[in-house]
Amino acid sequence: MKACVVGYGAMGKVISSMLGDELALNVAVECETKTLNDAKIDFDCIIDFSNPANLDMIIDYVSKTKKPVVFATTGYTEEQIKKIEELSKIAPVLRSANFSLGVILLNRLVKEVTPILKDSFDIEVVEAHHNKKVDSPSGTAKMLLKSITDETGYKVVAGRDGYSPRSKNEVGIHSLRGGTIVGEHEVLFCGEDEILSLKHSAHSKKIFAVGAIKAAKWLTSQAPGYYDMEDVLFGGK
Known about the structure:
CATH superfamily of the largest domain: NAD(P)-binding Rossmann-like Domain
Strand content: 25-35%
Number of domains: 2
Number of helices: 7
CATH topology of the largest domain: Rossmann fold
Largest sheet: 6 strands, parallel
């Protein structure tokens, strides 16, 4: 596989380094190739670790070439997500809030545990990241919350302040920001006299690159469609 990496920020540099000979080119304003339409080298798959502002450029290029694309960028609006879903009708598209293999397994465990414990346990989600992260909750926390609310229908409550009695039909989300924390996510199932904690801690950005490369290699052999990391690990649609 030869990959084109869109974006040359922290993650773009990490994944480019890890791709080694499998890197075809980088596309970013600070690189020689500024846009996908400027690319003079052929490649098998696009891995996007940039920002939502590049989405229209990627869609324009993929609409013409039908190249598989892995969307590892977060922060898309609902309208942009609909555009990505529409693109998947003509090209293989994979999008995930997190590419850590451990996080995908964590999400799978949450889906398995929630229906078993929801009636007798309260559920809370805690996420922590470095002090430069500007959005909250994290995309991964939103993914975990969706797995919980899809099963329970619970209302999501962001933090608590002052007089705020907890209702049974809610799930709390709490965001911490400090230091150089790469990423921590914990789902707490709190029952009477016992707590079940499902937690994942990231110690390096490399884990996201490993997952994204695995996803790209898998995606190159898939038909047009909308995929996620669970398809990669547990079987495609």
